[in-house]
Specification:
Chain lengths: ~325, ~160
């Protein structure tokens, strides 16, 4: 006795199934495993000082020593340095590295960078997990991807730089690694990355975590930004809707600064945050037509754009 | 081949056809279906030590594949969905195009229908895998049956109710 009262199995029985490519699945699986470990090693370890490895002398020509001053705590670090990790696909030839160096100069905004070869990546990984040899003892020395660590001079330039980096041939993934001690860590912890697609990163509180941390690096928004703010909410809808049925969901939006504001709205937005955040927030209403409850069938989210991506930071 | 890999390969061989068919039924696009299926199994490999003990490991892979199909459909240029399933099936005027009708449903309903009716998972498992409540899954299934009513033969509608 099966559930299949729709006859789906019979319907799909004759569909031609492509042969199982076990090799491709295992290769991809191993790549994912390795990347996860590298990221863990990278993000939980201290970021190392500038090292140019792999004998790529040309890197020196573009590299500049870091002269970023340490800012006093509390100062808004809108232009604070930020690090990116650019993972490369396997099979990069030395001349390919030269091209990256040229591209970095072309892209601009990159004050210095470090190339970590596959061998070096493995050495660091091994060092990071010195007490857990089961992670690395059976791995070949070239198992981990090579990567660049880039430092940007201006956090506000990050989205543009990431978009350019992602378009470079041979780049597998770009991850944001923040090393400034002045970054608003409370905000960073409160909001996790819930959507990461090619041109869209959306941060929101994890399930069960509370809203209300102010996005201190929010940028000015205009009417042209609203479709993107709506996309951010639609992409994150399953994460922010607490298990409600998000089928057929749709959105509408206004700029917070354009909306006639009842007192509770003004109080809500400025209770803990700067009142100027009103100018930097979009109000995106997510409608859930599949939810019968009138009170749960729609919610208005406060959405702001930070250099690292869109932040859904409150709900009304 | 180590033991971990051996067990995993056996799991893949058993589950792969069903997952691919579900992904194809869901997306209607063989390229999206294949990419999503391969990626879902690769992700299963990365957590195999835990997943192998999961009661609905096959359902987990299918759910992952269907979620990846959603992403694939979002990224695809808006073109009319190809009738791949129909072409793959023998000509039969009396045949009911359940898969075609299925693709007219909202994505979450489609996902619930495939997990429950095709993968044969109980509502409890579907709810867990879709990270939602059993009530919501039942609502999805009920609405899906209602929506499919006009598209299927009367005797089929009777069986579904």
């Amino acid at each position: 006795m099966t559930n299949d009262k729709l006859g789906l199995r019979a319907e799909l029985e004759h569909v031609a199934v492509p042969p199982l490519d076990m090799g491709a699945i295992l290769r991809r699986g191993n790549t994912l495993l390795r990347r996860r470990r590298v990221i863990a090693a990278f993000t939980s370890g201290a970021i190392v000082s500038l090292v140019v490895a792999g004998g790529v002398a040309v890197l020196d020509a573009v590299n500049q020593p870091s002269e970023t001053p340490v800012r006093p705590a509390g100062e808004t670090p809108a232009e604070a340095p930020v690090s990116l990790t650019v993972f490369l696909k396997d099979g990069l030839a030395p001349q390919g590295l030269r091209r990256y160096v040229e591209k970095f100069a072309e892209i601009g905004g990159i004050t210095n960078f470090e190339f970590v070869s596959k061998r070096e990546a493995f050495a660091r990984f091994k060092q990071r997990y010195e007490g857990q040899p089961e992670y690395w003892e059976n791995l070949p020395q070239d198992a981990l991807p090579a990567y660049f660590i880039l430092r940007l001079s201006d956090r506000g330039d990050m989205s543009r730089v990431i978009a350019r980096l992602e378009d470079l041939p041979g780049v597998d993934e770009v991850h944001i690694g923040v090393e400034s001690p002045n970054f608003d860590e409370a905000t960073a912890d409160a909001y996790r990355l819930v959507v990461q697609e090619r041109s869209m990163r959306v941060f929101a509180p994890g399930r069960g975590q509370r809203y209300g941390w102010c996005p201190t690096h929010a940028q000015q928004l205009g009417g042209m930004d609203l479709p993107e703010a709506e996309d951010a909410v639609l992409l994150a809808k399953d994460e922010i809707s607490a298990g409600l049925d998000t089928g057929d969901a749709y959105t509408d939006s206004v700029l917070a600064s354009d909306r006639p504001r009842p007192p509770d709205f003004a109080r809500m937005i400025s209770k803990d945050c700067s009142p100027s955040l009103v100018e930097r927030t979009a109000l995106v209403t997510l409608h859930l037509p599949q939810v019968d409850s009138a009170s749960m069938g729609a919610a208005t989210y406060f959405v702001s754009r930070e250099p690292r991506g869109w932040v859904i930071w409150n709900v009304w | 081949m180590d033991r971990r890999q051996g067990n995993f390969e056996e799991f893949c061989r058993t589950e792969y056809p069903g997952v691919f068919k579900a992904a194809l039924g869901f997306s209607g696009d063989p390229e999206i279906a294949l990419d999503a299926t391969q990626e879902a199994f690769a992700r299963a490999f990365t957590r195999w030590s835990r997943l192998r003990r999961h009661e609905w490991a096959g359902g987990w892979v299918m759910t992952t594949a269907l979620n990846l199909c959603k992403r694939g459909l979002r990224q695809r240029p808006p073109i009319p969905p190809p009738q791949v399933v129909d072409q793959a099936l023998p000509e039969d005027e009396d045949r009911i195009d359940v898969a075609g009708a299925l693709r007219t449903l909202p994505l979450r309903q489609r996902q619930a229908v495939l997990l429950h009716y095709l993968a044969d998972l109980p509502v409890t498992a579907v709810a867990e895998l879709m990270n939602t409540s059993e009530g919501t899954v039942k609502t999805h299934l009920s609405r899906a049956r209602h929506a499919l009513k006009g598209k299927l033969r009367p005797e089929e509608v009777g069986e579904m109710s």
